[in-house]
Amino acid sequence: MAQGGYAIELRGISKAFGPVQANRDISVAVPKGTIHGIIGENGAGKSTLMSILYGFYRADSGEILINGTPTTIPDSQSAIRAGIGMVFQHFKLVQNFTVLENVILGAEEGAMLARSLSKARKVLGDLSREYELDVDPDAVIEDLSVGHQQRVEILKALYRQADILILDEPTGVLTPAEADHLFRILRGLRDQGKTVILITHKLREIMETTDNVSVMRRGTMVGTVKTAQTSPEELAELMVGRKVLLEVEKAPPTVGRTVLSVENLSVTDEHGVIRLKGVSFDIKAGEILGIAGVAGNGQSELLEALGGIARATGRVTLNGAELPLSGAGADGRSRRAAGIAHVPEDRQHLGLIMDFTAWENVAFGYHDAPEYQKNALFMDNDALRADTARKMERFDVRPPIPSLPAKSFSGGNQQKIVVAREIERHPDLLLIGQPTRGVDIGAIEFIHKQIVALRDAGKAILLVSVELDEIRSLSDRIAVMFDGRIMGFRDPETTDERE
Amino acid sequence: MDYATLLQLLDTTIRLATPLLFACLAGLYSERAGIFDIGLEGKMLMAAMASASVAYLTGSVWMGVLAGIGASLILAGIHGIASITFRGNQLISGVALNFVASGITVLVAQRLFGQGGRTPPLEGDARFAPITLPFAEALRDVPILGPLYYEVISGHPFLVYLGFATVPLTWWVLYRTRFGLRLRAVGENPAAVDTAGISVVGLRFAAVAITGVLCGLAGAYMATALQAGFGREMTAGRGYIALAALIFAKWRPVAALWACLLFGFFQALALRPDVVEGVLQFKVPVTFLDALPYVLTVLVLAGFVGKAIPPRAGGEPYVKER
Fold it and tell me: pLDDT tens, B49-103?
């Protein structure tokens, strides 16, 4: 496997941003023609390391060897010349350009476009036959699915004759089927002699796809192991530095009365498209109902309608009282007053104001709570700060500084702030969307425990997630959504991924 | 309204649309690259003053045009440094430059000529003369088309033809060349350009420079072709009208031509209240006609023309992310 030597060898790479040491003396060697995983929590320094490799940053010290030759990579152009291609987590595509235009951008043949376009058309045809990378070259990017857009990014790299392909969290936005297809493509590339570096925090992908895996923690390289000789438990422990429970531990549910009853709920968006097509279900006290399905099949609209953000039709009762679905009383504030807490799917847009401090964010939605008032006119900011400090301590938010702006926290800690704000109000019903998107393994474990604890306290929980593992391990019942409808209810024990 | 009057109206439309067209295409290059430029007005004004002054002093209209382009380029360069290098707010930089231009033009003209902030009238070679196109005289008697060719299409100064030729040229640059592809890309997603190993800063400065050249031509045309000399605030908001036309045209070159002709037509109407009265059969106040192009501008900017989606990265300084 490694008879061809190393595609990439990093020796003693260090990089600091001010006082923060993002990479500390990192050495790793990636054999040619292998799929090499790099795994670590958010902030472990994976992205910094890859940015150094792609010429976005220069290392403070250390050496990079490409195919055995010491190489300096001062900018992206040099990285491309050295045969490195990068597929970023957030695609770098021009949305209103065609696939062809995106592929040739920066790699044109001469000043006129015609020749570049016809050459690219031919090369793309060859590449897509060779690697299962079929994309319509004349399609406009914004009309393509996320999976196809990612293929365009891979094609871009291959068109530039990359031998080493780096993918940063490639499956975060993909459906399970799309992810499987991606891994087939990556194996095909490896079999043709290309070297693939896969950066991810998902243990399952590492186990299924890679030949070797390097684990990073807090800026250092903890170790490199053969994938075949390790286990998810061992990798998780290496990542976090302590034993981690990958499965949620929970007792069988003690189900009580019906808390939420939804009948024939429909939502039509501003373009007149019906997003939610008459769904009906109940959730009982002490029960977690998980909504599974590929993103964009009405789950977001369901959360928004119940959370009072989107207008809807149908009938919804909470503890027997009917909730207004449009007009007066159909807003987040009334919902909160009725006993519904909402952890929105997109925490950075709906859950937090990134420039505001943690304590200001903790006040949102509950700013008129009596304990935060000094008198009729003024808020008691000291009480609010003290309350935030308490919540941060209980939810292990790091660093536990209420005056820090939300954007200074890592994704996991941001999510803990939102979850703390909502759960600590002891709502009768918790709506929670993508609770662990972009959250570290350690924090995932913690948030899952909090959700289960709320359930065990006899509350009802509606959980929406694109992570099927999460739905399966947390839910007491699973509803599968497709095209705005609930296709059926499943028992978590017997559901498999394809459904 | 008879045919002769219509032709006069169209002839005036073409003359008045030309500075709008230069300015509109100027804005197109900049905004397609992601740099909003509200300072078209100031650049035109600066170019008008510089070109009229130099044309008067040297007696050569061509020197005047060069000076106009140079003056406009200086303002464009400042805008570029403020908004690209220092990542400042593009609107504020543009507004500030408009104020600077408004003041400095009068100041310099007064210092040079002492005529109340205007330049002396330009004559002879210091001004663009009309060009009679081939066969214009010979074809003049051909019914319908002959007079159209003679009156409307022929008989304009060189810059008018240059302005109209810039439309297909811009289309070709934008959609058929590597530079155009990169220019459009940098206005939509500079990160894509950056990761492809192309300089975002270099591309944006190139776009801003083209804007400077075209605004220079717009101003020079005002002072040395449309009129004979510079006068205080002579651009009269044309830079803003050109911006409205650009939005109306949804940042596309050929549509920009039609938008500028429309605005030019309204300006031409304002000069002929008698014609408007003849067609409508009642008297329209001249002030209302004068206001029409500006009213249309407000309507366009307020979004009455349907959804116009600007380049996605427009107005936002590019900061390299991880």
Answer: 999 999 999 999 999 999 999 999 999 999 999 999 999 999 999 999 999 999 9
Structure tokens that stand for B318 in this block: 């590019």
Which of A51, A105, A153 is most worth mutating to test chain B (most B CB atoms within 10 A of its CB)?
A105
B181, B184, B194: best mutation site toward chain A, by most A Cβ within 10 Å? B181
Q: What is the mean pLDDT of chain A?
A: 89
Using an 8 Å CB-CB cutoff, list chain A residues near B189.
Answer: 92-95
For the domain bounded by A6-240, which CATH number is listed?
3.40.50.300
SS3 A68: coil
Contacting residues of B for A80, CB less than 8 Å apart = 196-197
Q: What is the mean pLDDT of residues A271-289?
A: 91
CB atoms within 10 A of CB A160: 18
Which chain B residue has the Cα nearest residue A96?
B188
| Single-letter amino acid, residue A177 | A
Residue A2: pLDDT over 70:
no
Strand ranges, E, within chain B: none
Task: Report the percentage of chain A scoring pLDDT > 70.
Answer: 98
Q: Give contacts of A54 with chain B, Cβ < 8 Å.
A: 195
- What pTM does this model have? 0.82
Q: Where are the domains of chain A?
A: 6-240, 258-494
Tell me, yes or no, if the two domains A6-240 and A258-494 fold the same way. Answer: yes
**pLDDT tens digit string along B219-273?**
999 999 999 999 999 999 999 999 999 998 999 999 999 999 999 999 999 998 8
Size of interface A-B (CB pairs under 8 A): 73
Take residue B230 and report the two structure tokens written for it: 């510079």
What is the architecture, at CATH level 2, of domain B3-126+139-301?
Orthogonal Bundle (1.10)
Give domain limits for chain B: 3-126+139-301
Quick count: other Cβ atoms within 10 Å of Cβ A142? 11
The 10s digit of each residue's pLDDT in A74-114 is 988 999 999 999 998 889 999 999 999 999 999 999 999 99
Q: How would you classify the pairing of strands A321-322 and A485-490?
A: unpaired
Query: How far is the C-alpha of A138 from the C-alpha of A148, rounded, in Å?
Result: 13
Instruction: Flag whether residue A105 sits within 8 Å of chain B, measured between CB atoms.
Output: yes
CA gap A242, A225 in Å, rounded: 18
**Mean pLDDT, residues B115-141:** 91
Q: Could A105 and B193 be called an inter-chain contact, meaning their C-beta atoms sit closer than 8 Å?
A: yes
Which residues neighbour B214 within 8 Å (Cβ) at sequence distance 6 or greater?
B22, B23, B25, B26, B29, B166
- Structure-token pair, residue A79: 């990285």
Over residues A218-240, mean pLDDT: 91
Helix axes B178-188, B200-221, angle to 10 degrees: 100
CATH number of A258-494: 3.40.50.300
Whether B322 and A47 lie within 8 Å, measured CB to CB = yes
Is B197 close to A75, i.e. CB distance below 8 A? yes
Which of B179, B195, B322 minimises the CB distance to A92? B195
Is B252's Cβ below 8 Å from some Cβ in A?
no
Interface confidence, given as ipTM, is 0.89
Quick one: closest CA in A to B178, which residue? Answer: A111
CB B108 within 8 A of CB B53: yes
Query: In terms of Cα–Cα distance, which of B91, B100, B82, B96 is closest to B45?
Result: B100
Cβ–Cβ gap B192/A94 under 8 Å? yes
- What DSSP string describes A82-111? TTEEEE-SS----TTSBHHHHHHTT--SSS
**Is B233 within 8 Å of chain A by CB?**
no
